[in-house]
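mind reviewing this fold:
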Amino acid sequence: MGLDRISFIKLKTDRQFVAGCGNDRLKRTLCRHVVELAQGYGACRSGRRRERGRSGGVSELGFDVVQGYLFGKRMPLKKFARRALTPAVTGQE
């Protein structure tokens, strides 16, 4: 395939493979192979998740970056800045 001639910067793994990889042996094996491939090329390893919450084993597999909706969906920069600068309401005194 000539992969040695391609310069990888980042190798991103889609959420259909990453989601549930902590409990699914086949997905976990595939993710490990993707991580090894990226490491071999010196590329950033990115795992994509959509669910909120824990990364569910993704970082333990060797991904450098876990992308997803942990804090919220994509939004314009101005909206993000407003949210980031607005104090959170916790309901606790």
